[in-house]
Amino acid sequence: MKLRIPLSLALAASALAGSAAAQGPLPQPPQPPQNPTTAEKAVLGKILFWDEQLSSDGSMACGTCHMPGVGGGDPRLAAGPAHPGPDGIFGNADDVFGSPAVVRADDTGSFIPDSTFGFDHQATGRNSPSMIAAAYFPELFWDGRADGTFRDPLTGNVIIPNGGALESQSLEPIISDIEMADEGRGWDAVVERLERAEPLALATNLPADADLAIFIHQTYPALFTSAFGSPDITPVRIAFALAAYQRTLVPDQSKFDRVMRGQANFTQAENRGRGAFNSPGSRCNQCHAGTLFSDGQYHNLGLRPVNEDQGRRLVTGSFGDRGRFKTPSLRNVSLRQRFFHTGAPGINSMLDLLLFYDQDGGPFADNKSPILNGLNVPPPPRQDIIAFLNTLTDPRVAAETYPFDRPTLWSERAQPNPLPLGTGAVLGSGFVFPRTLVPSPAHSGNEGFRIGVSGGLGGAWATLYVQVINLPGGPPAPILRPGPAGAVLLSGSGAGQGHATYADPRSVAPALVGLTYDAQWLIRDPFAPGGVSRSDMVRITVE
Asked: What is the tally of structural domains in the chain?
């Protein structure tokens, strides 16, 4: 049965009108006529959105950085900044709460050092915006670079002339060599991987609709046939499915929506908060307007110097757009753990937000919006405004229930696999411990699985030593890998600069499912005890 949402693009324009727009219940999102939403297309998009196999190494899904339970943001950012900011130094004022992503790898899948992150996970240079209200915006990303004109990335042909921002946005992370991809990844590699992958094989606790779709259509070609009529997997179809799924994420069951529909009433505090929100003093509604509580425009809040991130200017080239970023929707804002495009260290709650605006925004004046001048959010109304903002939370989003339900990702497991054991390391040249790199799951069929080493002596010979610990019918048996000679020459030059990668699809072959082994790199090093330095040990179970 087809799911149809016959709404005009004008609906989004009315939802994003200026400060005079009436606050009311959230309408259904618009959809371009070139990509009508169907149930089959939406569930395929849901499966793709939560499948870590969409990344090169099997470690990142779209949903990794966009969890409903934290308002569509990245829950990992609560721990601290993941990006050192423009100066490349952690622990100072320009740090950014960007999303941790893939370890840098070249077009052969070999790990290579990054100038900022080394062999650690790279991170995005901006805080992850929410995907939940994305369907209503004519432009997406903090700087609006994904606009309504969607083009086929293979041909450049215009597929959707207007209203295709979701389609435009959805493909960029998949081939980004920071977010989800090895360097040089093309769409042929993405398509070939999906053609062979078992849908959501790395996830558990699948949502009912996704589980049923996979039960009926057990491969991605079959799922694409259900959604599009043929098994062809193309970037355009991937974008269409991802966008269709996101257009089903309509957070219209908040208390605010129920009040606007006459189904509930505000408390006295919530009602006072709404009045204060819209008052001439606080003027929150000047930017957070209409049913989306966003004007959809770009403003410089003085949060950071414009030379750190030019924002909208990078898209338009206009000098007047320097440091401007899109106004996010306040729907589900009480679930968010980080705010603004930087994640704003020091702003950790909605009370912190109101204090920020009561001080007329940030301290950096270059091109700062005059809208911020003279804002007044005094102490008495603050808790009332927060009470009102809490009414914008859809309980289904908070609880991650349908349509905001999701699977448990591989990366969320309570006990990780591979499991770092924290033992066995032996110091090498330069007083550096070699380090085992295993960022992706040892799952049958994961073509991106690889084991690397960093921190060894550059130019030295190294061997990956594998100790099988559950071999049926016999004692533990060591296996020396890689290569016929059992050794590989480390790339890099000098103490602590050597690195190598071992990738063999046979190491996650179906026949090895259930096998558990400990892996450790041994490196010839004249300055190490006994002439051999060792990396830390990692326990791997093939699933």
From this structure: 3
Positive/negative CA dihedral, 167, 128, 375, 256? positive
Whether the CB-CB separation of 137 and 12 falls below 8 Å is answered with: yes
Between β-strands 516-524 and 538-541, what pairing exists: parallel, antiparallel or unpaired? antiparallel
The answer to whether residues 169 and 315 touch, using CB atoms and an 8 Å cutoff, is no
Question: What is the C-alpha separation between 151 and 374, in angstroms, rounded?
Answer: 43
Q: Give residue-wise pLDDT tens across range 453-462.
A: 999 999 999 9
Q: Which two tokens stand for residue 457?
A: 């002596």
Tell me the residue range of the domain where 223 lies.
28-71+136-252+402-412
Note the pLDDT tens digit of each residue in 460-483: 999 999 888 887 666 556 666 666
Structural contact between residues 207 and 245, judged by C-beta atoms closer than 8 angstroms = no
DSSP secondary structure letters along 7-49: --THHHHHHT--TTSPP----PPP--TTS---HHHHHHHHHHH
Stated as kind and residue range, the H or E segment containing 496 is strand 494-502
What is the spatial distance between Cα 246 and Cα 269, in angstroms, rounded to a whole number? 33
Same domain, 532 and 444: yes
Q: Are residues 193 and 215 in the same domain?
A: yes
Contacts of 138 (CB under 8 A, 6+ apart): 12, 13, 16, 147, 148, 163, 165, 296
Which DSSP state fits 492? S
**Angstrom distance (rounded) from CA 149 to CA 377:** 40
* Residue owning tokens 């960093």: 454
Structure tokens, 235? 């970037």
What's the whole-number average pLDDT of the chain?
A: 92
Q: Is 199 helix (H, G, I), strand (E, B) or coil?
A: coil
**For the purposes of burial, counting CB atoms within 10 Å of the CB of 256, is it exposed (0-12), middle (13-18) or buried (19 or more)?**
buried
* pTM greater than 0.90: yes
CATH of the domain at 348: 1.10.760.10
DSSP letter, residue 73:
B
> How do residues 78-126 score in pLDDT, each as one tens digit?
888 999 999 999 999 999 999 999 999 999 999 999 999 999 999 999 9
